[in-house]
Amino acid sequence: MDIVTIHNVKKYFGKGPRQVRAIDGVSLSIEKSRFTAIVGASGSGKTTLLNLIGGLYEPTEGTVIVDGIDLSVLTEEQLTIFRRRKVGFVFQDYNLVPELTIRENILFPLALDDSCPDQMFFAQIVEALGLKEQLDRFPYMLSGGGQQCTAIARALITKPSVVLADEPTGSFDARTSQNVAGLLKMTAETFHQTLIMITHNQELAQLADRVVRLQDGRVVPSAAP
Amino acid sequence: MEEMLKTLTRRSFAAGRMRNLTAALAIALTAVLFTSVTTISIGTQQSMTLTMQMQKGSKSDGDFRNMTEDQFQMLKEADFIESAGLRMSVDFLSNTKRHNIEFDVLDEVQAELTFCSPTHGKAPSAADEIVASDLALRDLGAEPEVGAEVTIEFTAHGREYRLPMTVSGWYEATNDQVSMMWAGTAFRDAYPDIFRFTYDRDKDMAGTYMSDFIAVNTIGLQGRIDELAVRMGGNPDDMNAENYLPATVNTASHQPLDPEIFIMAAVIAVLFIFCCYLLIYNVFDIAVMQEIRRFGLYRTIGMSRRQVKRLINRQALWLSCIGIPVGLLTGFFIGKAVLPLIMNTLSTEYKNIAADVSPSPAIFLCAALLTSMTVFLSTRKPVRVAANIPPIEAFRYVESGTGKRTSRKSGLGADIPRLALSNLGRNKRRSIFIIVSLMLCVVLQNSVGTAAGSLDIEKQAAYMIRTDFAVVDAAAMNGTKGFVFREDGLSEQTIKAVNAQPGVTDASPVYKNTAEDTNVTYDWGHRFVEEEAADEDSVIAVRFDENYANFGVGDDGNPVCNVYGMEESAVARLDLREGETDAHILYEEMEEGKGVVVGVNVNRADMSIDKDFDFIDVGETITVRKNGEPVMELPVLAKAAVNGDDQEIGFTCNGPMEVGGDGLFLYLPTGIYKELYDEPVIYKYAFNVEENQQENMTAFLNQYIENEDTSVNYLSARSARESAEGERAMINFVGGLVGVIFGIAGILNLINMMITTILTRRHEFAAMQSIGMTARQLTKMMIYESVYYAAGACLSGIAAAALLDLTLIRNLLGSMWHFTFRFTLVPAFAVSVILMIVSVIVPVLALRFFNKGSIVEQLRVAE
Amino acid sequence: MKKLTNCSERNCRYSRRCPDILLFVIALLLILLCVLWDYIPPSCIRIVILACGGAVLGLVFLWRQQQRRQQSDLANTVCETIDALMDDREPENYHPYEDSQVSKVQGKLLQYYDRMQEGRRQSEQDKQTIQELVSDISHQVKTPVANIQMFTNILQQHQLSEEKRAEFLATMAAQINKLDFLMQSLIKMSRLETGTFTLHMESQSLYHTIAQAVNSVWGKADLKNIQIDVECDSDTIVRHDIKWTAEALENILDNAVKYTPEGGSIRVTVRPWQFYTRIDIADTGIGIAAEHYNDIFKRFYRAQEVSAEEGVGLGLYLARGILTRQKGYITVSSEPGAGTTFSVFMLNYSS
To answer: What is the interface pTM, i.e. ipTM, of the complex?
Structure first.
């Protein structure tokens, strides 16, 4: 069962001679509840691809289907709701809201949707990510790893269809990288989430069930698994 | 969501203290502006109304007269009347000396409405008790105290009365000419003879019921009271009818609204709203830009546009909740403080103005509403911008150049001024806003400066008085009275006292005819409209010509004119425009009875002779009649443009209006004047005083009018000048205040801009510093940037100011007679200098406070 | 947690009722007021108040009506959606991403439906896995069984010298041993694959577990003159299943010994981190090419260049499976020719 289907997607930026072909004809299917790593050199279009899946960019050409819905038919407002309910984002620089406590940060996407949180689920996530003791602290009081764990919890709390992680360990040393990536994988597995992670770290890519290699906006064909 | 929004707002509120402080300050400033202006305008309006009411002697909504008792009962029961007073007029007392005392029976409601409630003691209850003003009691030879005994004399229904009365209470007179003495209804019951109703037969007021009333609702009041009057069986229109029952709305309480004032107010309000719009818009725009990454994040994780809007709106609401009350209070007190100043200036033409304003909810409501509206309007755009930025763009937002920088060839090396210049275009709209708000400050200050500088004090003073001093009866200086009767003349004593002072030169008395000199008339063949309109209020019969110019007419139906008897020195001071202009020759010819000088009102705007009042040409002849017989033929030798001094004194001209009306000011030599008039009275004693004795004379006159003869008053050139200068001070103050507010708005914007620039470009700065730019050079660059803004604003401001000065301001001032347009750019340059200085200081401070941390740290911050 | 929840719950429950009652009270008060208040002289005010009261009441009534209609609309839509899902149909009036209550509830229902479908798919997939497993096993077992059959035939049918016989029997014994090993591995694998083994998670010192694993490969290492260094604090406590973890480590170590030439060394380093404890097993073996990092953990994968070595390609597959079951993971980094490092990450605690 494919949760994400990308068909011949192209995304160009700019016009004329200065046009940048960030994604140049990518077709890809991503299975449900699997962990997919997207690797590639910087400028290979990893982030653009992720943003296309997250409904943040509109493809220049081709279709992106997430959870059975073609994103191109959605309006801007519907895309917002789509992101809110179906996508969990984890960024390199955490992007927590500094004025909210860890608990509030985690529950923020639910609050946006006016939903009451699933207490059991919240407790499980918090427990799994080791945030139980930190809930009433503010982000700046936590280590980078702790902040990223909060971001992971925030991405998971809505039980999204797909969790998109853009270099979630990019700003960490090797050790914290392993820690955080391991937790990300572990929680995604525990809660049956589909995880798509961008990384340039070969070691981390090994955690994935599948590795997609990008080069100059195209998928590098790999030996059949 | 609500909970989370609340939390977010609350916490980010505490976090962005500096920014919020600026925003709250901007809102507070707006509120201050609106509150003070509202306070001042409402205060002015209230004070003017009160003054008018005091002059009119009633603060009611309207009044009915000539009613019978039954009609009065009907009035009291009418549904639109909230309360109606009872007044039964008796007569003016006949045993008074200077002060006129009207003796009436009133009830307490009426007393309250007509400003004669006792402030000491209580209302009369027994038949022999009265309430009167302090001046009235003094005039009757009693001290104003409860229990004092006075005797009153009056006539009613042809019978004379002389009654001893006891003072049960008294009040301070609001008018030194006339005041009310009143008894209670017990007096009416004790003397039923006085109060017989005979109006339908002999038009005697005694015995009629009058009533000042307060209406429930003043909309369409005139229609209702007319209808009521008819229903009572009265005739409200025909004053000759037997059942004449005048019923009028009190115009002092309900002044017709002047559309010009409305337009002025609207223009000012729009200007203020625009200024505050600029300020608040900028503050919010910058706040949104600073937070743009955050909004991008919110949008990315699923905050909808509406929610973003709600978040910012909520923040604006919070800021308003802080800013508005602070601004309201501050503004109210500023307005309260400024009000008397403004009223003082206005009072050159209105006396006895009571300037005060109470914290009425209308003021706060009005100002709060305007402020909220401004905040709402000015946050629309930033809110929309924040909500519409596509999530990922905002998320990766760095304020970038417009591509200009790459295309611009910057010279070899780091040319700092040029680098700074190329940074200006980064956010065009914001740059323009800042320049416009600073520019407005320059333009406004300059316009105000031009207005203040163009205020022609000499012109005003010269209009008010031609000599150094002029002594007149107090009535002549009272704008509502004027020199009308012989008793208003100056006594020999006063003239002697003045002459006894050292340094008096060119002294000359001026004679003038009065309303009692109706036996001398002038005929120059002017055509009048046949029917003789009787004006109840005037002391003399009046006729109109076809242009509705009114002429007081004498016993034989010819105009009495305003006739002055003058010495040669006084004639020499006249502004002779046509005919013989040599004062000496003219005076000699006049003394020989060969003619007369005719004075004509001037059009104050350009000081030319006013065509509307130019009834006769040089060379034409005026026939003078005394007791109906022609006694003299006086050809017009010259025509003079008359000013306030030539008519009466200062700005008052009520005396001439009452006597001769619009028609002909005639200036005769003293000799001829004395020949013509039986009882010539001196109305004014005008004289110059040597420079070194002026202080003495002022002191003497002040002392004299206070202690020796309170019925006398004086005007000096100096005090005329001072009152004109007061107006300049007010223009400077009010205009300066507005200019300063614009200035503060502009500077706040500049500060904000600098802070934002520093915050958003920290990374760039760090990069520059890392490749070798020193902190000094960085500061220099920022100073250049800031100075460019200020310079742009100043240059365009000066240009705009010059343009505005030469067009709008010149026309505006040209239409007001006491201004003589003088072009100036000094205020603009002065403000420019201040702005330039501030623009140098701001970036230095901003850099010091906001560009902290090591270069590496800063590089990381922006990553 | 409590605070926020309470607030939002209260909001959910009472915010809709509150203005209702409030408005009712206001309306009643207004009406009461005008009934009681005879003093107001102009009757118009009384009428206005009465009208206001009436208007408020009317509004409240309309509002309630509206509310009720919305509620029943919501209920109907939800029911329709459920009906559609029960019939495995796409719901007709599904508006996926609207900021509305209906859309939210529908979204959740569909998610639930998907989850159920997922379960069904999972069990199908399990079936498929077992089939694959059976075919794999039969494939693997085929060769040794065929060999044994062949040798048995030879032994039965031909008169062979004692010497030859002994040789064939030895070969047969080796094949049987291999079969046994294969069987053992297959059993483990099948239990792992179908999830039928139970882990006994205990917070225990890792030191002993590692010692156990090293002990079992000690003999083989000694034969090849390979030195094994272990760097581990005895007080490193990790929550794990001793037996299975030792098995996994043993597999990795066995692998290392196998592909390390004589005289090489193996180094085991244990470093406790914030969330994970990292066990590095570094050898000086032949190494693995980067493109095969993911392959080596696959079932029955044997690199071409090591086909000479005995083995079935299950060791690393099992090791990874065991660690994953314990919420740990394993990565590899290698430099061909210089050596390989397997990093095992064990979660320090477990929820």
So the answer is: 0.84
